[in-house]
Amino acid sequence: MNTRKTPWRPGTWLLSTVIPLLVFAVPAGAENLVKTFTGSGPDTTPRFEVQGPWRVDWEAESEHPLLSAFYTNLYDAETSEYLGFITQLRGTGAGSKLIRESGEFRIGISGNDVDWTLRIVELSRDEAEALEAAASRPRAAELPPPARPEPSTLVAAGSFIGWNVVDERTLDLATGEDGLVLEVTLAEPCPGLTETGEVLFVTPDSGATNVYNSILLDDGTRCYFERVVPQYR
Question: Which of 40, 53, 77, 94 sits a CA distance of 20 to 30 A from 205?
Answer without folding.
Answer: 40
